Amino acid sequence: MEYFINCNSSTLAPYTTPLDEVRAAHLYRRLGFSASVQTINAAVGQTAGTLIDNLVDQALAAPAIPAPEWADWNNANYPEDDDLARQLRRAQIEDFTAAYGNALVNNELHDRMSFFWSNHFVTQLGIYNCPGFLYYYINCLQRNALGNFKTFTSEIGLTSAMLYYLDGVRNRGNNPNENYARELYELFTMGEGNNYTEEDIIETSKALSGYTERGEEGCTQVTFDPTEFNTDNKTIFGQTGNWGYDDVIDILFNERPNEIGWFICKKLYEFFVHPDSTGDEGNGIAPQIIDGMAQTFISSGFEIAPVLRQLFKSQHFFDETAIGVIIKSPADLYFNFLKESGFSYDDGTIINMMDSCSLIGQRFFEPPEVEGWQRDRTWINTNFIIGRWQTMEVFLERFFQNNPEEFRNLAVAAVGPANSNTSNPEIVVRALVNKFTPKGLLTEADFERAMDAFKIDDVPEEYYSPDYYPGGTSQWMLQISAETPTQVYILLRHLSREPEFQLK
Predict the structure, then answer these.
(1) Which domain holds residue 341?
(2) How many distinct structural domains can be found in the chain?
(3) For the chain, percent helix, then strand, then coil, each to nearest 5?
(4) What is the mean pLDDT of residues 310-322?
(5) Which residues on adjacent β-strands are paired with residue 380?
(6) Closest CA to 23 of 58, 48, 4
């Protein structure tokens, strides 16, 4: 069953209307892990062109996570006792996980993109199990997140994480391993069966051979061993020579630019705009949009940033039909709420949220297969939806126990200065509904149920203002009443189980 049909007919022409609150929130939900009330309010009234350029420029300038002291450790740096060594590795990985989680929360487009690429250039930590390999893999994703895709493709293939994961370390000249060559074409650049042959894969694997020097097993970075390189002539995409690693990348991008352009831009489109782009029906003009993005991609020499600027500034991106049609990933579910609520958190909160992602299908640094997480509809099933509800309720309870007044502060920020001490509960509920759902609740009956959740029995109906309840006394006030934090807490628990809360 298809829940959403992509009927977006808007073009790549610039979106010139000043941003309203709905579109400002849409922008931040897609380009990062959402944003605070204050950030959204600051974006309202701005033009998309100026704001997007600022966000892309910030992402391009953002630094990668600094190298931890253990980044270049090998086995000699760890305790001889295996149990102690494993404990230390786990502690290092946990510290780095917290650092990367904070980067995702705070770095908007820069690490939204690094996370996107982690599900494209997939590795699995469990295969190589080395903190230093993990650091350099994430470092490569961060440095190249909005850079040149050709350079990115070249660099990622030489990370020790990738060389271990796709068997590059076993690709010897006299016994080629085809695993990485196959995925380089099928999953990383062109798509399955898209203008390459089995012979191309075999010949490419020979050209990629030699990166097998591992020193002692464990955390020694992989280097090139010329004695393990296949020195025969190889024919790749009709080009013959004694090709090596760099030659493969050059030939691939020189001979197959159109295939690369379409494949990568399709993935970007489906990630940022709509999960359906080329289905049998109801795909709007998505193929034409992807064509336009691909032209920009190829003409820029495979620079990623110009494609993102073009897409994010477009009428297509801001079209009404593009808003609220992507199901939140587990990371979106928790991190979006963290940003949108403005609640206090620490590294422990980040780690707990990332651990909770594992419970509902998204284990960090461990996509289930080389194709990565399939996203969108796969995030929702009978097990995962219950887990999404229950874990959100756990986090809400923790936030409430830690500081109930933050719930009042959230409501005050959401309604804005003009209504900061309103006695009308509808104003508060509508502001919070609009804050945490892309386009509000589906029906008026749904909204009334949200109102019922907010109006707890502790507050008599007549305590609300006359503009809400005839004959009301305005004894309940948002900024003063002791019940307000509890009311906001109960409302958020209610909203966290609504279908619209699962969308971005």
Answers:
(1) 327-402
(2) 3
(3) 60, 5, 40
(4) 97
(5) none
(6) 48
**Which parts of 369-483 fold into alpha helices (H)?**
382-402, 405-415, 425-436, 444-454
Residue 311: inside a domain, yes or no?
A: yes
Mean pLDDT, range 428-436, rounded to an integer? 98
Q: Is residue 53 part of a domain?
A: yes
Q: Which residue has the tokens 């980044």?
A: 71
Using a 10 angstrom Cβ sphere, with 0-12 exposed, 13-18 middle and 19 or more buried, the burial of residue 163 is buried
What is the band of 282 on the pLDDT scale with cuts at 50, 70, 90? low
Are residues 397 and 438 both part of a single domain? Answer: no
Q: What number is the average pLDDT over the span 107-116?
A: 98
Which pTM value belongs to this model?
A: 0.96
Q: Where are the alpha helices (DSSP H) in 69-195?
A: 82-106, 108-118, 125-128, 131-144, 149-156, 160-165, 179-183
Rounded to 5°, angle at Cα 205 from 203 and 206: 65
Q: What is the CA radius of gyration of the chain?
A: 25
Asked whether 169 and 214 are in contact (CB, 8 A), the reply is yes
Task: Judge contact between 186 and 192, C-beta under 8 A.
Answer: yes
- pLDDT over 80 (residue 225): yes
How far is residue 328's CA from residue 341's CA, in Å, rounded to a whole number?
Answer: 16
**What six digits make up the tokens of 426?**
């509808």
Q: How far is CA 158 from the centre of its chain?
A: 24
